[in-house]
Design brief:
The structure holds two protein chains of two kinds. Chain A is α+β, with helices and mostly antiparallel strands. In chain A, 42% of the residues lie in helices and 14% in strands. By secondary structure, chain B is mostly helical. Chain B folds into two domains: 106 residues, no CATH class; 70 residues, Arc Repressor Mutant, subunit A (Orthogonal Bundle), CATH 1.10.10.580. Chain B contains seven helices and five strands, in the order E-E-H-H-H-H-H-H-E-H-E-E. The chains are: A alpha+beta, B mainly alpha. At the A-B interface, helix 1, strand 1, strand 2, helix 4 and helix 5 of A face helix 1, helix 3 and helix 4 of B.
Chain lengths: 180, 248
């Protein structure tokens, strides 16, 4: 590995969060984005090909070194690290609706689910997964919710485009003509 | 939420099935479950059968007082009634009353599918640990308080020493009314040359009255407006006008 790749590895090791490409520039002002992308590529291949217990992943618009899935159980059993709590089915449904319809108000979420969801919204907000981005122009100017940056980190996604597209889902929302 | 996992059986057309309260995140979820159980074509829901099963299920699950489930039950019954209405001539286009329900069910099913995808992604992420993991600190109970009164007083001293311009007031409520007593004395002095101090007091004086009068007398004596005279020690004293009385 060249010097810059080793610097990248050290930076990712030290940082407690994903580091974005433009943040890496602070490490070495002369290096271009292309230089850093090459370093990322080299480090990723190094981890994948040389038999490492960690991998380089793209999360929330940045890069992060994470332990491999295969070792999750042993690490957790030894209590060296703990998985974050899982969300309830209701919370995941609300999160799904917000992810695809953001910015979206509470009334629309409740209309789709057929259940009130004030408590779930508060919980998701407290966990930093969603945030209020404004108010609708509609009656009562209800709050509008959108996913927060933490949402991508929680799911390990690079950005929102990593979510499945509607044509990848088995149910598409368009109704067949026969039913209309 | 309590972990209610009461398995309940409800006799359906396709035989008994086990329902679990925790599994449903709303009336649409329960309805989808019933439709899948019965292997029903979602585009041609036998609404009478499904409505009956829904009512039975929410009764068994103890959900028949939950507003959202009741609303769905009412909706199903309304659709059931609309389906029974005789259709007018074939010329008039017939709006299937189940249409809106089907649209909502499909929409909800899509949300469920995405929610499952999110759950899988979150589990994938949760099994990979990043650097900078900081274990939550264990809750340590506070140590028991042990100290002597000297230590406490020393601590108080240290705190007091930090305060600039330390002024300590000891506030005692004082029911004495010296002003009124002074006015009474001056009034008597105006009408009499001399009087005894008992004349100052009413028929049932309180200790506060006595002390108020005493303070008033001493103060007026200091100012020279009256003089106190006694014929012998421990006899009642007499109050007479003092040298400065005229100037008052």
């Amino acid at each position: 590995m060249d010097q810059r790749t080793r610097l990248l590895e050290a930076a990712l090791f030290a940082a407690p969060r994903p580091l974005a490409l433009d943040e890496l520039a602070a490490l070495e002002p002369e290096a271009t984005d292309a230089d850093w992308l090459a370093a990322v590529q080299e480090l990723r291949e190094h981890y994948d090909n040389e038999g490492h217990g960690v991998e380089l992943v793209e999360i929330a618009g940045g890069y992060q070194v994470l332990t491999r899935q295969a070792f999750a159980e042993a690490i957790e059993r030894a209590a060296f690290a703990a998985r974050p709590v899982r969300l309830s089915a209701a919370a995941l449904e609300v999160l799904a609706i917000i992810a695809y319809r953001q910015p979206v108000g509470r009334a629309e979420i409740e209309e789709i689910r057929g259940v009130s969801c004030a408590g779930v919204l508060r919980l998701l907000q407290e966990r930093g997964l969603i945030e209020v981005t404004g108010r609708s122009e509609g009656l009562g100017r209800p709050l509008l919710y959108a996913t927060a940056p933490q949402f991508l980190e929680y799911l390990g996604l690079g950005d929102l485009s990593d979510l499945p597209r509607s044509d990848e889902l088995s149910i598409a929302l368009t109704l067949p003509q026969a039913a209309g | 939420m309590t972990a209610v996992t009461t398995p309940a059986t409800a006799g359906g057309a396709a035989g008994g099935f086990v329902v679990n309260l925790d599994r449903y995140s709303g009336p649409l979820d329960l309805l989808l479950h019933l439709i899948r159980r019965e292997e029903i074509d979602i585009w041609d829901i036998p609404i009478a059968r499904i409505a009956d099963q829904f009512l039975q299920a929410i009764h068994v699950l103890g959900l028949d007082e939950a507003a959202e489930y009741l609303e769905m039950a009412a909706r199903l019954l309304r659709i059931k009634a609309q389906m029974l209405l005789p259709r007018r001539g074939d010329a008039e286009p017939w709006e299937d009353p189940r249409h809106e329900l089907v649209r909502r069910l499909l929409e909800y099913q899509q949300v469920r599918e995405i929610a499952d995808w999110l759950d899988a992604a979150a589990r994938q992420r949760a099994g990979r640990f990043g650097r900078g993991y900081v274990a939550p600190l264990p809750d340590v109970p506070p140590p028991p308080l042990e100290f002597t009164i000297e230590e406490l007083l020393e601590a108080v001293e240290r705190v007091l020493a930090m305060l600039p311009d330390l002024v300590i007031h000891r506030v005692i409520p004082r029911p004495l009314d010296v002003e009124a007593a002074t006015a009474r004395v001056l009034e008597l002095l105006g009408t009499r040359e001399a009087f005894g101090w008992r004349d100052l007091l009413g028929p049932a004086p309180t200790i506060a009255d006595v002390l108020s009068s005493l303070v008033a007398l001493l103060e007026l004596a200091r100012r020279g407006q009256l003089s106190l005279a006694q014929s012998r020690p421990f006899t009642p004293f007499v109050i007479v006008r003092g040298p400065a009385y005229a100037t008052a």
